[in-house]
Automatic annotation (TrEMBL):
UniProt xrefs under InterPro entries: ABM_dom (IPR007138), Dimeric_a/b-barrel (IPR011008)
Upper classification of the organism: Bacteria, Pseudomonadati, Bacteroidota, Flavobacteriia, Flavobacteriales
Domain annotation ABM: ranges: 149-211
Keyword Ribosomal protein applies: no
Protein name, UniProt field: Antibiotic biosynthesis monooxygenase
Keywords assigned by UniProt, alphabetized: Monooxygenase, Oxidoreductase, Signal
Record organism: Flavobacterium beibuense
UniProt entry tagged with the keyword Ubl conjugation: no
Cross-referenced Pfam families: ABM
A molecular function GO annotation: monooxygenase activity
Leader peptide range in chain numbering: 1-19
Amino acid sequence: MKTKFLMLLCLLGIQQLTAQNNKPVNQKNMNEYTLFFHYPVINYSDKQNEQLKQQWQALLKNWKERGIYISANVYQPNAIIVEQNNNKETDFSSEGNFVGAIVKIKAANKDEAITFTKETPVFSVNGSVEIREERPRPNKTVPVLFIDTFTVPDKAKTDFLERVKINRDLLKTLPGFIEDHAYEKTAGNSSFNYVTIAVWENEEAIENAKQQVMASYKKSGFNMPEFLKKNKIILHRAAYKEIEN
């Protein structure tokens, strides 16, 4: 029974496919809404689970095509409740109702978000959907990507990767840092074979990071231009912002 119950969480389910709307939504001035699916504890037959699976897959495809869907997360019925002086594990499936999934969508306003939730079957099993809107953050800025591309000879690979690790560890400690990634080319004919990407809150954070990195180089006696010249490494770098729709 529990396996069938967990399958339900993964499926979420929707109403009959004939109720779906294929009309694309207006992408201008869209807001993000988070849908919390509150599910009752019900056991389903294998046939019902398969039907729900097919319906949910169709809905996701439909929402993606219409520009509604952003992301989805599905949750197990058990959780750990952390209190100030106590931690306890609980199984919500024994309490009759719990948040089984969270889905993020785009909608023009709350009324439209409500309309979209009507396409889901949570109501057919006496469940409900909680709609939340993110609280606006003052002075919200657009993240900036700082991208470096490197052309590294094979004999310099080991020294280069050691320096990349040192730099990445440093960046993670600086204000305004969001995340970073490093990639090695595996196919293609581009002139560079390594790429590093650091995501920052804004351009001010990048400028501060540059100063902090240079200070770290000076303190450790590391000279970047000499390192690149000695190892015949070619570096190109630039800052990028995401193109808005």
